[in-house]
Design a protein that fits this description.
The protein is mainly α. It has helices at about 5-40, 45-75.
Length: about 80
């Protein structure tokens, strides 16, 4: 059972790290597509920009939920034995 704390720390690192990579890739792809769409139809730039910022917030929210779950496991570990 001593390895449980090490495994929880490893899992927390994976949750935060993979979530950050996924959010970064998602926002980068979305930003690139926004620039392409703005170059094709500049008159729609304001509508596209609003939608892009909403989606960026949702992508970041998904990452922050993962961070909150990792912090839950790091500090209020349900797998830890109470002695």
């Amino acid at each position: 059972m001593e390895n449980v704390l090490g495994l929880v720390a490893l899992a927390c690192g994976l949750i935060v790290g993979l979530g950050a990579i996924g959010a970064s890739i998602g926002i980068a792809l979305m930003g690139g597509k926004f620039l392409e769409a703005s170059a094709r139809q500049p008159e729609l730039m304001n509508d596209l920009q609003t939608k892009m910022f909403i989606l960026a917030g949702l992508i970041d929210a998904a990452f922050l939920i993962g961070v909150a779950i990792a912090l839950l496991f790091a500090f209020a570990n349900p797998f830890q034995l109470v002695a």
